[in-house]
Amino acid sequence: MLLLRGSRSSVVSTEARTLHSSSYHRKVVIARLTDLTHGQFNEVVQQGAAGILIFLPQNFTTIAPDKLKALMELEHALQEDAVPIPVYFAYETDELKDMYNSVQRTSDNGRTTSVAQELWSMLKASGFQLVVSGSQAKMISDVQLSSIQGKLSGFGVEEQLPTGVIVAHYDTFGISPALSFGGDSNGSGVAALLELARLLSRLYTNSRTHPHISVCILFLFRFTPLLFFSSSPEGSLLADSLFTMCIDSIGSGDDLYVHVSKPPREGSAAANLFNELQRAATRLAPEMRVSMVHKKINLADESLAWEHERFSMRRLPAFTVSHLPSHRAPSRSSIFDTANSLEKDKLARNVKVLAEALARILYNVTDNESSLQVFRSSLEDYLGAWVDLLSSQPRGAQLMAKGKAPLVSMLEQALSRHLKEVRLSTFQPDKRCLPRSCLLLLCCQCPPLGGRALSCTNSELVKRLSRPPHLAPVCCAPTFKVSEQPGA
């Protein structure tokens, strides 16, 4: 049975009202997210509104931390709802602010105003007709998920060498796919993986420092690891790995957490790597604490908590490194997670700790030699450039499930600079293995309008969605028009 969440409709053609109107029936309600509550949202839906247009702040950095946390919690509450009407989002530009104020004046008497009085106010004032044309959203029939694999081969007979795996997913999630930039989750993970590839490649290209362990680097579309466990070369490579380290959200925070489904066996490569992470943190960042968080896999959940759980289900030694202590952190799937959400100095610190710990495992240096430091150069500039680039474009899963997206090509080229064996793989999920959660998607942009109509070229209005998708649906692009109607 498929559980559908999110909006089930997309077409709109009616007048605009604000939350202060006495009736929402067959009207599009416009509201600022900072003014909206979950109860008000449900009331708008129950009163039979034709749609909702929610304005987002232009600059999230001006929002107080407590208010930002409340907005993230509201965002996640809305993600859980099944909504029968269209819901759109837009950044509040000056033009949209003028429109909102004009509509607000029509309803400035509040809910105490009678219907007759509100009708008279509507006739005297200017109104706005909101129109979204096009076909209704529908599920994608041909989903293609891309992953990138690169390998640093160790010194020796390749087939006989042990392998370590480092993974990061490159897609993001939020209530609106085209507004999901994922600065910390998982822009920081992608940037960290690229930097680790660059640093480790220096060791593997020098005959004097060539380790005897191979390293496999994977950029994955979230929830695709199960596709690797087949007769493919990638499947056999992962099945024989010493450890699988997933990197997710390491661009902020004072501590690092190693999330595991089962604590690693003492003396194993995964356990040694955890110990080396603690030692590296003690040497390079004494104020930082590295601790292990044990959480069993709950197969009853609609989606798994962390990326490593996909590997752990196959009895592989895997863990996720993150600055988040819990998978329930709202910032992991929020449109408020932008480039400003992370601290580049802490990202560089965390990557250096990871690199030093990996180097000690590669060279089998497992004692307390505090004088050993393999990487001494500054990493902040390189990491900052990648984070800025990744955070400048949305990476919503629904927008990238149609094969080789431009971002995927960019990551493939970047990885090829440091690794010789780079392969791009495209997968099509088996329809017999569909998850219980699936989503509907609709992307729409507001084009420039002439005459007295409002120009909304800086705002991108996108259909809101629900939980992180295992299967991405179709993206269509209708026209969104905001036209001003003179009063009688």
UniProtKB/TrEMBL annotation:
Compartment(s) of residence: Endoplasmic reticulum membrane
Keyword tags: Endoplasmic reticulum, Glycoprotein, Membrane, Signal, Transmembrane, Transmembrane helix
Domain Peptidase M28 as annotated: residue spans: 165-219
GO biological-process terms attached to the record: regulation of signal transduction
Pfam families tied to this protein: Peptidase_M28
Topology class, membrane: Single-pass membrane protein
UniProt keyword annotation of Nucleotide-binding present: no
Predominant subcellular localization, coarse grouping: endoplasmic reticulum
GO cellular component, one term: endoplasmic reticulum membrane
Family of the protein in this entry: Belongs to the nicastrin family.
Protein name (database record): BOS complex subunit NCLN
Organism expressing this protein natively: Haemaphysalis longicornis (Bush tick)
